[in-house]
Amino acid sequence: MATARAYTNIALIKYWGKQDPQQMLPYNSSLSLTLDQFYTETKVEFLPKQTNQTADSFVFAGVAQPVSPKITRMLNLIRQAAGWSNFARVETENHVPTSAGLASSASAFAALAAAGAQAAGLQLSPRELSIFARHGSGSACRSIFGGFVVWHAGHDDQSSYAEPLLATVDFPIVVIAVLVDQRPKKVLSSAGMQQSVATSPFYPAWVQTAESGIATMSQAIAAHDIARIGQLAEANAMQMHATTLSAVPPFTYFAPMTLKIWQLVQEFRTKGLSCYITLDAGPNPKLLCAKQDAAAVVKKLQAALPQLQCTICQPGPGVAYRD
To answer: Which domains does the chain have, with CATH numbers?
Structure first.
């Protein structure tokens, strides 16, 4: 038995589209920042064979749920590596809105991979653990690590992995997570990726631009240049969403409130606040800014839109094991 906690990450250079959906290999590399406010905690217990359990079981927030194919896939990988055939009991508490573009699957499968490997007695390196996590959800490989993280796209199972770029973030960057809508999104990420890859005429340019953005973003991080990091992240996000708007048929993850917040962020910048927006596959924006500006940004946002829920997130840790 083992319990692990993993935190969500927000991609600054995003992954959007799989060249191999079975192996979860992306078309382009990506770069993210792990956050300290949203997390998943998962306990995995491999049961003795003499028990009456005839299949894996899954309990989410105290309620028994069907075991999804992705969970089964992850557990089978762990069993294969350990040389086991024991069934598992998985219990999960998710402190992230699910399927709302806040990387709940990243923290969920990073925690499952870590807890399952530990419970099975596997001695995995962080790189190997990131490869395991990738099989559950691509972005989960990044949540194995804290701080700024790079996921190398690779060309096969072993060359597609994440590693820390800057594990200890020693400059005052923060992310303000803005909850516009906590309901599950209508177009799941996997379906949205497939549609963008198959039909958007902009998709090849997206891959090329995103891949080249890794080096530029890495330089901005090394320079501790928060404004440059924000500029690059905002541009990358809008380039990704251009592939959804240009797909056939077109679709979007923007909500009316999302667009209003983007407009406000642009206005804040004209008044001297260094604030930038990024957005994954969901309506909930994440705003990048310096720590000293965060309270002012939240105050202005909530003055304009009083119903908004804002959470100020700092750089978070990598996966950790719990007692």
So the answer is: 2-169 (3.30.230.10), 173-313 (3.30.70.890)
